[in-house]
Amino acid sequence: MGLEFIDASxxxxxELRNRVATLPREAAIYYTxxxxxxxxKTYVPHDALRMVAEVANRPIVIDIDTSIGLGAxxxxxxxxxxxxxxxxRRALRVLGGESASSIPVAAGNFSKPIFDxxxxxxxxxxxxxxxxxxxxxFAR
Length: 140
What we know:
The chain is an alpha/beta fold. 29% of the residues lie in helices and 14% in strands. Helix 4 links the parallel strand 4 and strand 5. The longest helix is centred in the middle third of the chain and has 16 residues. The termini are far apart.
């Protein structure tokens, strides 16, 4: 069984909302960001995520920490605070006189599994099935 990807970039928000409301059971939604729809109408990505989530009939996977709590289930997300702290440490080294070329490029650990407990509950996803080390937020 293969995967099918649906490119929603040319859809209007109305078309997209209709599509995510009628997805088959084995589907999932991977949301990155919507800045503009097929008509050229602009959106704040967090507002667009909320609009998609309120009608989606399947869980929404995301890739950035700041989208947790907006209707997405979660996923392996980037941590912008950790990225910023690492960049600040490197900048301070350069400001302290160290040559930028002497600072090695490092692949930081800026991604971690974070999930919205309320969305896990909505979709009947057992927290015991989450990857080891997962963080859940918004538990009641």
